[in-house]
Write a structure and sequence with these properties.
Structural class: alpha+beta
Helix content: 25-40%
Number of helices: 12
Oligomer: single chain
Distance between the termini: 26 Å
Shape: elongated
Number of strands: 8
Strand content: 15-25%
Radius of gyration: 24 Å
Strand order of the largest sheet: 1-2-3-4-8-7-6-5
Length: 383
């Protein structure tokens, strides 16, 4: 699709925002992905991105209870009725899409029979280690240490909370989620740890108040931002800019306190408006993003593409220029700058195209665009 030489977007984020936010116009494969092989199958009767009616067909109403989960819903199956023999929770967003699942084993699940998963875990480094007491552990031992291990694929993340030793691990919790929701499904979240400390009908373990993460940002804002990312980046089917726009507007209305989150919500809302052809609205949102957090190269570049579509070529060129000044190795903005210069300054366009080729050398995903740029360089050289 790059052969016609369109302006290119970039929606990658600064490292200050968690992995939940995600990057790019499509879900990108993570480099050096850790192994994810397992012989412990927990998602037996459901799959991420499944719609709630499909889930309900496979589970009689008497087998689960329901409660609100922000604007969505949590369906809970107790261990006595679950195939996994653990407490199962399935989390659906307000559109009825399964975005995450949590399996809790207050007594601990011995992983000795699961050699494949144990091998996977042996190759991973803990993403977090901490102390936790769980009184119902089958070993009756006071749990001194626990660790979270993380693996996954291009669109989803699996997290295991373990105790015991590397040789004899015991599983306490496992969570599965599509990547935009990762932040909301860490087993270290306080509400999830509490399910181990005080399981239904059981005696509570020692509760250490300082343990467990709690978001400073409003849960509704984080949940809606994740919903917007899911729709905008096609994590569950096709891209849906109507849902994305609705979600980002709700995330802003819920009140982010951190300017990084708030600015990016306006930015992503602008991208949704642009995809729907509402260029003036897109421009307004991106300007709002820059007013909150100036000089972000991705936002400057994307605002430049909106100016192009509005016929405001001089403004677009200025934004592309500023983006590459702030980030000289910003290949996407270099490409857009070259196209902006080509009608009036072919020499500068040629230089920018050549810089673009250097920056994307060896990147397979850029092959089609590289071929187009080489053709443009040939054409400009002949002039």
């Amino acid at each position: 699709m790059w052969m016609s030489g369109p302006r290119i977007h970039s929606t990658s984020l600064c490292l200050a925002i968690s992995v939940m936010i995600g990057c790019g116009s499509t879900p990108a494969a993570r480099p050096n992905l850790p192994p994810s092989e397992t012989d412990l199958v927990l998602l037996k009767s459901a799959a991420l991105c499944e719609h709630k009616p499909e889930f309900v067909k496979k589970h009689p109403p008497t087998t689960y209870t329901s409660r609100a989960w922000g604007s969505g819903q949590e369906l809970m199956i107790p261990a006595a009725q679950s195939p996994s023999q653990g407490d199962e929770s399935y989390f659906f967003d307000e559109d009825g899409t399964l975005v995450g699942a949590l399996f809790t084993f207050p007594r601990g699940l011995d992983l000795a029979p699961y050699s494949v998963l144990r091998h996977t875990l042996s190759l991973l480094k803990p993403s977090l280690e901490f102390y936790l007491n769980v009184s119902q552990l089958e070993t009756k031992a006071n749990m001194d240490t626990s660790a979270i291990f993380e693996t996954g694929d291009e669109k989803s993340t699996t997290q295991y909370l373990l105790t015991g030793t590397r040789e004899y691990p015991t599983l306490l919790q496992a969570s599965f989620t599509i990547d935009p929701y990762v932040r909301l499904f860490s087993p270290y979240r306080r509400e999830f740890l509490d399910r181990l400390r005080n399981p239904s009908g059981g005696k509570a373990g020692q509760k250490i108040e300082s343990q467990g993460s709690e978001d400073k940002e409003p849960f509704p804002s984080l949940q809606q931002f994740a919903r917007g990312q899911t729709a905008q980046l096609a994590y569950c089917g096709d891209k849906n800019y109507d849902v994305a726009g609705d979600a980002y507007q709700k995330s802003i209305a819920s009140g982010f306190t951190n300017k990084v989150w708030l600015a990016e919500a306006h930015h992503k809302l602008g991208l949704a408006w642009e995809a729907k052809g509402q260029f003036d609205k897109a421009k307004a949102e991106m300007l709002q993003s820059l007013a909150i957090r100036p000089n972000i190269p991705e936002v400057l570049n994307n605002l430049g593409t909106v100016h192009v579509k509005l016929g405001e070529k001089a403004a677009a060129l200025g934004l592309f220029e500023k983006a590459v000044v702030l980030r000289p190795n910003y290949a996407v903005a270099r490409y857009n700058l070259a196209e902006a210069y080509e009608p009036t300054n072919p020499k500068r366009a040629l230089a920018e195209y050549e810089t673009f080729l250097v920056l994307v050398e060896g990147i397979p995903e850029e092959e089609a665009r590289v071929n187009y740029v080489r053709e443009r360089i040939k054409a400009l050289t002949r002039k």
